[in-house]
Amino acid sequence: MSTSQRYSPSWRRRRYCLQFLASYTFSKTLDTDGADVNSTSSGTALTLGDQNSPRQRWGRASFDRTHRFVFSTTWTLPNPPRGVSRAVLGDWSLAAIATIQSGGALTIVQTNSTNVFGISEDRAQLSGTCLKSQLVKAGTLESKLGGYFNAACFTGSPVVGADGIGTAFGNSATGIVNGPGQANLDLAFSKTVTLRWPIERSSLQFRGEFYNALNHTQFADPDTNFTSPTFGVISSTAVNARVGQLALKLVF
How many folded domains does the chain comprise? Predict the structure, then answer.
């Protein structure tokens, strides 16, 4: 079960061989299980928290990104009048796509073998000593690679069993914090040469494409398991390093 709200204004202009499209999306997606399901090694899906209470599991879906801005442009460069300069500098075009978006919703989980309801996969318990803004450490993202979360803000589930061991469900919300945001730029350039072979109106197109053109490191989500020794550690990237490719195409 899910609901979502989305507001996406966009603007598009074209003039003098230049066109661009700018889109901004402000959204929020809520559901019961989009961020609450863990897969075991046997392929079994386990629902986090109280399986009999959808309201208790209700929160931001794991794919929810509050802000997303995309700007794309294509520019066909003006051609010189004639001669060698036109042959060399004419019929070039540039294209770019820039994407900036906030991080996805993260749910802090834990493995709890003492849950009195027999549910070992659960959400973590809030310690009650932190504001929501303090769940993620302050500072630059690079300074938080070894510990993205403030571990003091979380604790073990409350003991409710008469034996002093059995525990209840954790009380932290689904999608309680945001993961690392992303900013990416892709570039492409091309040149078209008009040919009269093998038939009229043939053309030869040279094209170069560069993904993550600025080679900007964009980090993946941290370990969200509170009971893991690597809790809060960011150990991978979400986008590959810069990749470039060249192509030559004959159109006839």
Answer: 1
